[in-house]
Aspartate aminotransferase family protein (Haloarchaeobius amylolyticus), 432 residues
Amino acid sequence: GPESKKLLERQRRVDSSAVAYPKVVPIAIEEAKGATIRDVDGNTFLDFFAGIGVLNVGHSNPYVMEAVQEQTEKVAHTIDFPTEARLDLIEALNDIAPGALPDNNRVIFGGPTGSDAIEGTIKLAKYNTGGDGLIAFRGAYHGGSAGALSLTAGKKYKEDYAPMLPNVHHVPYPFAHEQGLDPQEASDRALANVRELLEDPYSGFANPAGIWVEPIQGEGGIVTPPEGFLPGLKEIAENNDIPLIVDEIQTGFGRTGEWFASDHYDVTPDAMPMAKAIGGIGLPLSGTMYHEDLDTWEAGGHVGTYRGNAPAMVGGVRAIEYIRDNDLLAHAREVGSYIRDRLRESAGVNERLVDVRGRGLFIGAEFADSEDQTGKELVKDIQEDCYKRGVLVWSAGRRGNVLRLIPPLVLTQEQATAGMDIICEAIEQHAP
Ligand code: PMP
């Protein structure tokens, strides 16, 4: 619309050329509530992106907002001083932490971004092991700051910024569909690679500090690993006396239909970086829960200014309460399986939709290349069609060929149906 155009034009003149999103979905946002966004021209959109999986309890969730506003009036910035907000959030995180973490964990809050939390885990792992060797996976995304970028796999993110941290190794993530393997076989092979790297004296890898893994790869294309993979990885980490760092930045806080994706696989991370949805309604905060055995830092051993944003912390507490009180984990599982069913029906109409993946409301639909169009171009076309009909969807995947559906967990069944009618129509219209 004309008002969006005006603001986009204004942005184009002053904002960084790196800003990407409005180039694909050219709207300027006026306001957002729950699972809908209204642009400055008064058009409303169903939001199947949730600010990259941040707005799990919905845009401007009133239950969260109320407490955030109250807290903002009292105090906002507190660094590391104790506040009720901070301690309440730590306790709330303890209540939902996966596996055995709640019994013996510690939390360190990071700066506002996921990358900050990842940087903290690199320091934590190095400090505790004395090593500097970092193991991560192909297809991984862990952030854009120097250390996190070193763990990120995609060439497009890092090729212009060499050198990366030394002694970082990327091993294959089990990706049964892409590898054309049975899931068990994919998992076994991936684990064998890690084991060999760590345990074969001739692998050329020395001084390991830790293993970083996404429990379900996000940017890499919503890649759901086979059942035994994470427990197997945990065992290897244990045998080699290094921590397993499970990056729950995109998968946390109910996104996958459990509090954390680790819950699906019965694995207890040694350290678990969190960000995105942790601040409830998009307030910037990150944190890492880690096992008390790793709690060896001296006071001041890892510092940072933005580690006590009380409104974000209150927002986090309220968001956890809201998810629990409204049974949003079960809701995410139900609506998620409805969405996957609809996508599978569309796969029957458009054979280029070759794989439907994910758990809860963390969903990917992969499209294959054809002779005259790549899967990436097709996903862009579908995205554009959806946007024109009032649904915002995003892409993912190493080759950009995965349609990513990660709506707020508060998406109602009616909204899911309305959204999927449009998304499936767009997919089916692009049948070859
Ligand atoms: N880890 C994962 C799994 C992510 O998905 C992201 C962001 N997409 C990050 C880390 C980095 O978070 P941020 O962009 O807040 O630095």
Summary: The mean pLDDT is 96. The longest strand covers residues 353-359.
